[in-house]
Amino acid sequence: MTTEHIVVVGGGMVAHRFTEALRARDTAGRYSVEVLAEEPRAPYDRVALTSYFQLKSPDELQLGDPALWHDPLVTLHRDTRATGVDRDRRIVRVDGGREVAYDHLVLATGSYAWAPPTPGADLPGVFMYRTVDDVAALRGWVEERRAALGRPVRGAVIGGGLLGLEAAGALQSLGAVSTVIQFADRLMNLQVDEGGGEALKRLIERMGVTVRCNTATQEIRAGKDGHVGSLLFADGGEQLVDVVVFATGVRPRDELGATAGLEIGARGGVVVDDTCLTADPAVSAIGEVACIQGACLGLIAPGNTMAEIAVDRLLGGSSTFPGADMATKLKLLGVDVASFGDAFATTPGALEMVYADPVNGVYKKLVLTDDATTLLGGVLVGDASAYASLRPMVGAALPGDPAAWILPEGSVEKGEIELPDSAGVCSCNNVSAGAIRDAVNHDGCHDLGAVKACTKAGTSCGSCLPLVKKIMGTELEKSGIEVSNALCEHFALSRTQLFNAIKVAEVTTFSEVIERFGTGRGCDICKPTVGSILASLYNAHVLGDDRAALQDTNDRVMANMQKDGTYSVVPRVPGGEILPEHLILIGQIAQDYGLYTKITGGQRIDLFGARLEQLPSIWKRLVDAGMESGHAYGKSLRTVKSCVGSTWCRYGVQDSVGMAIALELRYRGLRSPHKLKLGVSGCARECAEARGKDVGVIATDKGWNVYVGGNGGFTPVHAQLLVEDVPDDQVFQVIDRYLMYYIRTADRLQRTAPWQQEHEGGLDRIREIVVEDSLGLGAELDAHMARHIDSYEDEWKAVLNDPVRLQQFTSFVNAPDQADPTLAYVEQRGQRRPATPEERAGGAVLIAPSTLEVRS
Amino acid sequence: MTAVPATASSTATVVCAYDRLTPELGVAALVGGEQVAIFRLADGSVHAVQNLDPFSGASVMSRGITGSRGDVPTIASPIYKQVFSLLDGTCLVTMDKSPKDGQAPDLVVYPVTLDNGQVIIDLAGSE
Ligand SMILES: Cc1cc2nc3c(=O)[nH]c(=O)nc-3n(C[C@H](O)[C@H](O)[C@H](O)COP(=O)(O)OP(=O)(O)OC[C@H]3O[C@@H](n4cnc5c(N)ncnc54)[C@H](O)[C@@H]3O)c2cc1C
Ligand code: SF4
Predict the structure, then answer these.
(1) What ipTM describes this predicted complex?
(2) How many A×B Cβ pairs under 8 Å?
(3) How confident is the model over A477-504, as a mean pLDDT?
(4) In chain A, what are the domains?
(5) β-strand A375-381 against A831-834: which pairing, if any?
(6) Closest to A646 (Cα-Cα) out of A688, A604, A681
């Protein structure tokens, strides 16, 4: 079989999805793909463009696995613009006159940012908002003007839609003051109604952005220096500006299709049928450039659907475009906005049910059929937590009193929703409620992990996970499969339930816990869990009373067991700041005991190869010199990584090392469901990579931003913003509460990222609980953390003073001065490492560990 | 090397005093060149198995967590968490892994006798 050659014009988001899906599905290698991209970089996440201002490099916006572009059947040409198509010869012409032949052509040229013809729109200081180059130029300009003017830069955004508000947020984050100039009578007039627009305006103004509605911009005038200087409005008003961003809509880039003689829609766009084909069977169009079912669609989800359909058709499938879901949910300037279904109540007889709370800036509206039963659509501003449940219900009957969905939580009981099978649950990966039910009932997926793996639901943005979990639970219950949260055969309770039970009963030993709440003798699952709960609750020594026998491998001897049964030792180095004499001591110990040394990812030093019986003497030297346990062995706080910050760095705006040390000393020894790591960066350049940690703290001009949940384990995720620009004491308070709430409610071995995603209502709900104190738990969480901080003691120091506990650190009960005779090492790069089985068998020179020991 | 006291039988060895054992916390002993893991459980019974963990090749079984599966008292490997019966050494949970080359998945169990407050292990009686 010869390969057929597909040429894709445009290197945007949809082109990426097309290429990725084709390479995933075309396992036989029937097609090769050549992507012609005008932009100088591989396809990136345009939806996340605004986050560019927080990123270190545009590479962080990259989409998917970059290995795609090294696939032998894929070629990507950057900086390459297509200039014409000859459909008779099946040729695309590119800049410079080169010709590229195709068997099938896919147009994925997207849109360009459109600006109404306005005098002065070409002045220096006027920007568009569509590409990485646009935002990079905008940032450069604002920074340069601020330096030149010596005062905050005055910005204006023309256009008060979705994009305009994003741009206004971007200007603010660059430190400019911004005004949004809106031609229509309200913000986001395409998505929200008048009431929603009002609520939105109030919320946005609260963020310090000025809003001018009903305002037409007539002219942009230059200032004395020839740069943009002021805006002149049709009503005669004028406003001084140093930078202007146009966000007045997009137009499809259909010029290639037009010159090639393909049909163009009335409002632009290359006309395609439901299979994404143009009238020429060798040419498809997908994404924003395609005019499908009579319209061009400016959202990513329908674009991705088109990409999947085009791929399916090329491989002989029969899928068709199901119609677009134009529902949107966004967070603009920290404000939730969602709109779905018939948001403007255009259905004849439709009823609108509205709840508005102007004080808190909340506006919620449901659109219902004339009998007030079936949901048609809605608008949510200020609190969009009901969006995930409501959007899939469009077209279905809402059980119970619909008002329950918009009134404040708890005022009216919500009906149990039963989604129709066709309802979309995961919009990123297009998974319906029916597909999830199938996975549970027919494919034997009985836990969230299995459902995710099988359906892909919740594997991208994760916002649908609470719903997926709920559907799965209901199905399991129906089919009589008990949804077991039981920890193990000894406890029918989940970790959270057990935590609360132990807290309420105030029991402190494992024997009491298992007697009251469990059966049998326990096992390697429940014992460490109970050990961890007791430690989190009472902060008593992990090896005290009957607790030593509960601890997992590492905690049991307060060191990390390695593959040969020896241990590694890690003293705490708070914030990564270390005294030279401590460095020298660590080096001396490593030499004396022949330990392998390595710098850890958490800015401290790991000493490997210590035998059980050597641990106390090693720790004695460390403790005597003023060092303490680093808890590298515990499911507990590990490290707080920091950059050097404002004390040395030219760019730093806050003392990141000081903050990191304060945090590390505050939370040291805190036991938790999984290990915890924090990071602190001294400015937005983020050298400490704090957003890859459970809690990341990043300095701003005004204080600190706190990010949470950046620890996904196998599936990396970035931490999400919890609070912005807060002073030191609030940093401590929100982190105290966030960590304590996590410790109380997470499952066994559940990291912060999945905990946060699966938490009912997601991060928004967690923010309400820990920042706004919506459950009234705040004082209790604060007190619990205060207790932890007060009762902290160095675990190793305590053991060294306790002859009974020291007995555990013995090699052989009947030969305490004998080392484990099976240990064997070879030398590598000047240090030792465990010998492999081959090296042992081959009689390689083995180093007996005891020969390396000089003192003990 | 500390002398290992011998008893009447040439293969039975006194390892330590019963009181030296902490309930549910294992210890290792060297018996005639073999490493043995010894456990005193909460019910007072004492069990001994090979200290070598067949799945990792490290001599660490004495440092695992004791527990039960049904009525069977168990010990879990501290390295990859396989679970073994303390009664007959059978591997009850393999964690989808195979033992190291040349190792059987089950543990050797040694008979333990208590005499005059001393714990005695008999290598010859192993099964
Ligand atoms: C700031 C911002 C925020 C957004 N937020 C959201 C959101 O929250 N939700 C949502 O659903 N959507 C959002 N969108 C819209 C979303 O980004 C688009 O729907 C999506 O990018 C469309 O993908 P595409 O591949 O069709 O077009 P594009 O991503 O625009 O890609 C087209 C590419 O083709 C290139 N190209 C064009 N002509 C040629 C040629 N002749 N030769 C070679 N290359 C060419 C262009 O340079 C461009 O790189 C947002 C857009 C922006 C700008
Ligand atoms: S993050 Fe820290 S080290 Fe990096 S530039 Fe900012 S202050 Fe300097």
Answers:
(1) 0.90
(2) 115
(3) 82
(4) 4-112+252-314 (3.50.50.60), 126-248 (3.50.50.60), 327-417 (3.30.390.30), 419-483 (1.10.10.1100), 495-551 (no CATH), 635-789 (3.30.413.10)
(5) unpaired
(6) A681
